[in-house]
Design goal:
Alpha-lytic protease prodomain-like, 307 residues, three-stranded mixed beta sheet, 10% strand, Alpha-Beta Plaits, mainly alpha
Length: 307
């Protein structure tokens, strides 16, 4: 069992225990903010289960039907998780408004307070572990799951703080108000997660920082080739895809050009892990010493023709 699957299972176990604790505390106290946190944790559990199956599926090797692998299972997982968060937030707001219109006293504040802060501590530890593995494995599914739990840390602390205020001030309307604030925070979390998970599904380019790394490695060898163009990038799961056209002097042998392509690919892959690179070779139809001497790619006829 790989590291991604192990931490995904850990998230499932921790969320299950916390949901039961919050539900018990919520029903004993009658606190809508604690119940809202239990609902939030239920969404976290569903997200953890989805993440578990998606990381297992995404690690399957490429096959005839999926020649680019199965990495986008993780992105689909992230989108589903974001939609689940939207649903949870909407439900919390609805229930909180009902509680504002028909206020009820909050009982056994101490139990709720203890459960909320214990929950925050557990989720803090698990989310740190998830983030660590997500960065190591470049996993959007685990990152989404970690984001769920990170949000749960803040919302649990918020609910716990609200219960403390209720105990001090005896103002029971603070309970649904805190729950609504929790829901607004969750909506913000869901929006950022949705954007992050959905973008690779429509083949958005890599980040500017990653593209800068790629171009820097290519430019290290500009004394040998004439020009490059049509640089394209995308990402599927943890795998990054790069393709470009590289223009060589027409008198250069295919072997020499191919060897340089191997060097460029290795240079990029040393810095950007899990990167697949495809380089299309083109011959310059003009005396390319002119391109190199002037350091001006616009002099290259191949480059002009492709623009």
């Amino acid at each position: 069992m790989n590291n991604k699957v192990k931490v995904a299972k850990l998230s499932i176990y921790s969320n299950t225990v916390l949901i039961l604790s919050k539900l018990i505390a919520g029903f004993i106290s009658g606190s809508v903010s604690i119940i809202s946190e239990a609902i939030h944790s239920t969404m976290d559990l569903l997200a953890a289960i989805i993440a578990f199956f998606s990381v297992r599926a995404s690690d399957k090797p490429a096959d005839e039907e999926h020649p680019y692998g199965h990495g986008k299972y993780e992105n689909v997982s992230g989108v589903i998780e974001a939609l689940l968060i939207f649903i949870a937030a909407a439900w919390i707001i609805f229930e909180s408004i009902k509680k504002l219109l028909h206020p009820e006293p909050v009982e056994s504040v101490g139990i709720g307070f203890i459960v909320m802060f214990a929950s925050a501590f557990v989720n803090y530890l698990v989310s740190r572990k998830l983030y660590k593995v997500a960065r190591q494995e470049d996993s959007i599914a685990l990152e989404a799951d970690a984001l769920h739990l990170k949000a749960d840390v803040y919302t649990s602390l918020g609910v716990g703080g609200g219960l403390l205020l209720i105990w001090i001030t005896k103002l029971n309307y603070l309970d649904p108000v805190v729950a609504i604030l929790v829901a607004i925070f969750i909506l913000k979390e869901a929006y950022h997660l949705l954007i992050s998970a959905f973008s690779p599904l429509i083949d958005v380019k890599l980040s500017e920082e990653e593209i800068k790394i790629i171009t820097e490695q290519i430019n290290q060898h500009k004394s040998v080739y004439c020009d490059y163009h049509n640089l394209r990038t995308r990402k599927s799961g943890k795998t990054k895809y790069v393709d470009l056209h590289l223009v060589f002097p027409e008198d250069m042998t295919v072997k020499v050009a191919h060897d340089l392509c191997d060097v460029i690919e290795n240079d990029i892959e040393k810095i950007l892990k899990n990167t697949e690179i495809l380089i299309h070779l083109e011959a310059c139809t003009k005396a390319c010493t002119e391109c190199k001497l002037n350091d001006n790619s616009n002099n290259c006829i191949v480059h002009k023709d492709n623009n």
